[in-house]
Design goal:
The complex is a heterodimer. By secondary structure, chain A is an alpha+beta fold. Helices cover 26% and strands 22% of the residues of chain A. Chain A folds into two domains: 107 residues, 2-Layer Sandwich (GMP Synthetase, Chain A, domain 3); 120 residues, Ribosomal Protein S8, Chain: A, domain 1. The radius of gyration of chain A is 23 Å and the shape is globular. Chain B starts with a strand and ends with a strand. Chain B is built from no helices and eleven strands. Classes of the chains: A alpha+beta, B mainly beta.
Chain lengths: 267, 114
């Protein structure tokens, strides 16, 4: 047991049990008690959490050159790799291709799916995120170089990233907003309310969606799983033309993830 | 997320310093630093060790209860259980009575040119 643990969880003499008034819960927030945000005794009063910029060692060149510079960063879990370019690949919209047959309107995604190990492709801004097939293991070095070469060749030949037909098929932002809000209200939030969690639609830009995870989801170690296997699947089933789904939650500011929540009588 | 045994922190203060002993906050609980050296006064460097011995769902540097603390640079070396240590460098930020600074950063992912 860490030394700080015994300091913050000091034993106190038994006191008569107070009469507990059940808190009024707002079902619109997924059952989270939003009004009662006082920390239990010994806990830190929540403040705004600020993030200092992470400094990187100087190195490499800056500015755009005729060469297409690409850096590959393997994502957590080793399944996907983000390819960061020195120029925008797709501006204003994003494009998600869960398998090769879905990429008929994206010559760039087709070029990547021609590589046998590629499983999914997400194009957003300056980044392409490529997942490899679950049956492929080991390090990414060789595959990343192959994908990087394919991206570079495609862009240098000035081939289109996606077709006009793809853009024309994207629903208006208001339609996306209304459809996803309905999915959140009827499918997602009722499901995660048992963990005192809730999802909020932050904004829609083009076909890119920004969401915030609240209550028990904020700061929860399983939030990434909830996002990928719950929210992503529900959203994409409802709207196949959806692009990137990005989480804007400040997870470091979470004060009430479900595994930290004390029963009302223990506060 | 690995179990974090200890971390060493070095904080270089800028123009506005504070006269206090900072605390770190793990999963909502404030804790005192160990092996404290230096100070948080203007232009000085504060060095200390924290020993979470636990999983840092949140790890914060508590802001001062009074005044503004201009931090020029922070260097944190993490010692996760059973893994090699790693270091993260953070840039300038100002803390006050209403703010804390995030201290938890996972091991930076390797980036390669392709």
């Amino acid at each position: 047991m860490p030394s700080w643990f015994s300091k913050v969880f000091k034993s106190e003499p038994a006191k008569p049990k107070p009469v507990i008034q059940a808190p009024v819960r707002d079902i619109r927030s997924g059952g989270i008690d939003l009004a009662d945000d006082k920390p239990p005794p010994g806990r830190h009063t929540p403040r705004k959490v600020v993030y200092a910029p992470v400094l990187k060692d100087a190195g490499g060149q800056s500015g755009r050159s005729p060469e297409v510079r690409i850096k590959a960063r393997v994502e957590k879990g080793n399944r996907a790799c983000a390819f960061l370019l020195d120029r925008p690949v797709l501006e204003g919209y994003s494009a998600w291709f869960p398998y090769a047959e879905a990429a008929t309107e994206s010559p760039l995604a087709q070029a990547l799916f021609a590589i046998p190990s590629v499983d999914t492709v997400l194009i957003h801004g300056y980044t392409l995120t490529v997942a490899r097939k679950p049956t492929v293991f080991g390090d990414w070095d060789q595959l990343a170089k192959e994908i990087g070469s394919a991206i570079r060749a495609h862009l240098l030949e000035e081939k289109p990233v996606i077709t006009h037909a793809y853009l024309d098929a994207i629903p208006p932002e208001e339609t996306i907003r209304q459809t996803l809000q309905r999915v959140i209200d009827t499918e997602i939030n009722p499901g995660i309310a048992a963990h005192s969690g809730a999802i909020r639609l932050d904004r829609v830009e083009g076909n890119t969606v920004y969401i915030e995870m609240m209550g028990g989801c904020q700061g929860c170690a399983a939030s990434d799983l909830t996002l990928r296997q719950g929210v992503h699947e529900a959203f994409r089933s409802a709207l196949p033309g959806l692009g990137a789904i990005l989480d804007v939650t400040d997870h470091a500011a979470g004060t009430n993830p479900f595994y930290n929540q004390l029963p009302a009588g223990m506060r | 997320m690995p179990k974090l045994n200890t971390f060493q922190i070095s904080v270089r203060t800028g123009v506005r310093g504070v006269d206090m002993l900072p605390q770190w906050v793990i999963n909502g609980f404030p804790v005192d630093f160990e092996d404290v050296r230096g100070s948080t006064k203007s232009g000085d460097t504060f060095e200390a060790t924290g020993s979470p011995g636990s999983f840092p769902h949140t790890l914060l540097l508590r802001g001062p209860d009074e005044g503004n603390w201009d931090i020029e640079e922070t260097r944190i070396t993490y010692y996760p259980n059973g893994e090699e240590p790693y270091t993260v460098r953070l840039g300038a930020v100002t803390l006050d009575a209403e703010s804390d600074m995030n201290l938890w950063y996972e091991r930076p992912q390797a980036v390669l040119d392709v």
